[in-house]
Design goal:
The structure holds two protein chains of two kinds.
Chain A lengths: L1 H5 L1 H23 L3 H5 L6 H16 L5 H5 L1 H20 L1 H11 L8 H24 L1 H4 L4 H21 L5 H18 L7 H19 L11
Helix pairs in contact in A: 2-11, 4-12, 6-8, 8-10, 10-11
Chain B lengths: L14 H9 L4 H7 L6 H11 L2 H9 L11 H5 L8 H14 L6 H13 L17 H15 L4 H13 L7 H16 L16 E4 L2 H5 L2 H13 L4 E2 L10 H5 L2 H18 L3 E4 L3 H14 L11 E3 H10 L15 E3 L14 H9 L31 H18 L3 E3 L3 H14 L4 E3 L1 H7 L12
Parallel strand pairs in B: 1-2, 1-3, 3-4, 5-6, 6-7
Helix pairs in contact in B: 1-9, 6-7, 6-8, 7-8, 9-14, 10-12, 12-20, 14-15, 16-17, 18-19
Classes of the chains: A mainly alpha, B mainly alpha.
Chain lengths: ~220, ~450
């Protein structure tokens, strides 16, 4: 079982995820239409690029925009969750040893203690994200079962990972569960709302280009996100 | 009855049809017919497949349902935080559903979508500034309006507006002759007071081509005179086009994209015919957006630019004051608490956030300007944008919407609101009528004129 999950199924999962992301990003930008979107992307590439970078950069900063500053609670739980969700899978030592073994390369690693901390923060933040969904009428009305499924897919690798880490009960069971949930996550990224992992940058870039080219950029106005 | 006599999928193309349509007072029969208007699902889905590309599809797909857009919407705030007014909900429950169901929606759904598109969104684009994914629901509502218009589900006044543009190339029944005659007549009226005042018509290679809002011709002709006096006082070499003089586009509010194209092309034709150095448009927000910001795209201009550089009236005014072409009598500057209404259409949508403030620095005594909060590109819609002001069916919702601006103004303590936008000006007039908060409102032209140092050559001999 372990062999299968860390062998062919792992290669399929990571391959589908990476290739899927590349294809979808390419399709996104190919699908942008200057006349339908009413943005002269090609006529002003420099202003478009600057607008895109600014639009992404500002929103990646906690409290970097009016929107984030307006909702401090959301900002804290959002960034706490995403910090763990991005860094732990990529920089966990065990993941990188695995990566080296399977793909022959590894990324920067973080101390295990930090990984533990970020994992707990991510899980706790996810709980608050769910509670926020239930508590706030303006979020509740938008919420569907699909949103909870996405949260479950995102959080399952953390929960199973922590249970394996602390060897609660049967270690090998939690390890298998962790690998399976991680692979489900990888497979889900290109095909579900989790596509925001990369489409966030695409969509933000598009609106940034819109503002950088059409909505004031050519007038020298940098939009105060 | 699938297609009604008035309520149908056909645009109004002739003067005769327009008159007959307007004969149906308040659209009584029109809205009755709408109750049984068929939805052409095949056409709807085909249109979506052809026009709904990756930007909007991705927006609909990746919306995280986080609700961070809620508080950005003045209609959500003013309607007691009704969850049904959350921008993401409004667009997901209308356009989102239509796409999801591949166009297979019924009459009742389309009427709900119509109310949502015209009475729950003014296309002010504020929500787009507050979405982490950069999802601009105002843009999507603009798109949805186009789909609804094509299917005949459009408020009565909007269909008239689009029809006016198709028939007259103006938002009202003002002909080319009427426009030129009215402008010249107004200049004659003020000729004795301002010596040498004339209205140059169709002059080629002028420095400025001036375009207006048909309402000025029809209802506020003094505005034309004021524009003429200020150009004359500034020593500008300006002209008006006898054809292609209308800057506005109710067709944009209606979602009639074909009429949008016809309208702006008439203005661009005038630019190409008369070859001015640049175009200056009157104090109107949506008109600037239609002709200067969106128009080039409707006309298929790949660089997104008008044939000659085109600016808003406030840009010309700021320049004329800055360069001393127009001089203000410091004694006559505004000495009462005054605030400024930022128009979404050229502030949030064209970055002109400092221009009007520069003008105020010349015409308001220091210490009297009170900014609204929020302001500039984060300002709230006046409450009547996107056609909301003009739709009788949704008057109640519009009046409720005005409360946001009312409260913003009250907080400043200002007694005068400067609104360099026809739509905002109307909304502020209406909110004063509705809520009587004791304010005055004004365009910039009359204020500038009241404190202008009239050049000697324009003064009548004693």
């Amino acid at each position: 079982m372990y062999e299968l999950l860390t062998g062919i199924i792992f290669y399929i999962s990571i391959g589908v995820c990476v290739v899927g992301m590349i294809i979808r990003t390419a399709l996104y930008f190919r699908g942008l239409a200057w006349n339908l979107d009413r943005v002269a992307y090609k006529a002003f590439p420099k202003q478009g690029f600057q607008g895109a970078v600014r639009s992404i950069y500002k929103w990646l900063l906690p409290f970097g925009t009016h929107g984030w500053r307006k909702q401090p609670f959301m900002t804290v739980i959002f960034f706490s969750f995403h910090l763990g969700a991005v860094l732990v899978p990529l920089c966990l030592l065990a993941h990188n040893i695995f990566l080296e073994e399977k793909l022959g390369f590894h990324l920067i690693t973080m101390p295990n203690l930090l990984a533990d901390f970020l994992s707990w923060v991510a899980v706790i933040s996810a709980v608050f994200i769910v509670l926020r969904r239930i508590a706030l009428p303006e979020v509740r009305i938008l919420t569907t079962w699909y949103d909870y499924l996405i949260i479950a897919i995102s959080v399952a690798p953390f929960i199973t990972g922590l249970l394996a880490r602390y060897e609660v009960g049967d270690y090998s069971f939690w390890l298998i569960a962790h690998i399976v949930s991680g692979e489900i996550l990888l497979l889900a990224i290109p095909f579900t709302k989790l596509s925001h992992v990369f489409l966030f940058f695409a969509s933000r870039a598009q609106l940034g280009m819109d503002y950088g080219i059409k909505r004031g950029g050519l007038k020298g106005t940098k939009m105060a996100w | 009855m699938p297609e009604g006599i008035f309520c149908n999928k056909k645009p109004i193309e002739t003067e005769e049809a327009l008159k007959a349509f307007m004969g149906d007072t308040s659209g009584a029969q029109y809205y009755k017919e709408m109750q049984s208007l068929d939805v052409d699902s095949d056409l709807l889905w085909k249109t979506i497949q052809n026009t709904c590309k990756s930007r909007i599809r991705t927006w609909l797909e990746i919306c995280a349902h986080c609700g961070m857009c809620a508080e950005s919407c003045f209609l959500y705030l003013v309607n007691d935080r009704d969850p049904k007014q959350v921008p993401a909900y409004k667009i997901q429950s209308t356009l989102g559903e239509i796409v999801k169901r591949k166009g297979k929606v019924d009459n009742e759904f389309m009427r709900m979508a119509m109310e949502t598109a015209w009475a729950k969104c003014t296309c002010c684009n504020r929500c787009g500034l507050y979405c982490p994914h950069g999802i601009d629901m105002g843009v999507m509502f603009g798109y949805l309006r186009g789909l609804l218009y094509q299917q005949g589900f459009v408020p009565w006044e909007m269909k008239i507006g689009a029809g006016m543009h198709r028939v007259y190339r103006a938002q009202m029944d003002v002909t080319e002759e009427e426009f030129v005659e009215t402008f010249q007549w107004m200049a004659e009226e003020y000729e004795e007071e301002y010596v040498g005042l004339t209205v140059p018509v169709d002059v080629e290679n002028a420095d400025i081509l001036y375009t207006v809002n048909a309402r000025e011709v029809k209802h506020y002709p003094e505005d034309l005179a004021e524009a003429a006096i200020l150009f004359h006082a500034a020593g500008e070499n300006w002209t008006i086009p006898s054809k292609g003089w209308e800057l506005t586009s109710l067709a944009m509010f209606a979602g009639d994209w074909a009429a949008c194209k016809m309208q702006v092309e008439s203005v661009y034709d005038a630019m190409e015919r008369l070859k001015p150095k640049r175009m200056v448009g009157t104090e109107c927000g949506h008109a600037h957006r239609a002709t200067v910001i969106e128009g080039p795209y409707w006309a298929g201009r790949k660089d997104g630019q008008t044939p000659v550089p085109s600016i808003h009236y406030i840009e010309w005014l700021a320049e004329a004051l800055r360069e001393g072409k127009l001089k203000i009598d410091p004694e006559k500057r505004i000495k009462q608490p005054v605030t400024l209404q930022d128009s979404c259409n050229y502030v949030r949508n064209h970055g002109l956030r400092e221009v009007a403030r520069e003008i105020l620095s010349y015409i308001v005594e220091p210490g009297y300007f009170r900014d609204m909060s929020p302001n500039k590109e984060h300002n709230f819609c006046c409450g009547g944008g996107g056609g909301f002001n003009g739709i009788g069916l949704f008057r109640h919702q519009r009046n409720k919407g005005l409360m946001t601006k009312r409260d913003q103004i009250l907080k400043t303590g200002a007694k005068l609101v400067i609104a360099p936008c026809h739509n905002c000006w109307d909304a502020i007039r209406d909110l004063e009528e509705e809520y009587e908060i004791g304010i005055k409102w004004s365009f910039l032209k009359p204020l500038i004129l009241s404190m202008l140092v009239v050049p000697d050559h324009m003064k009548p001999e004693e």
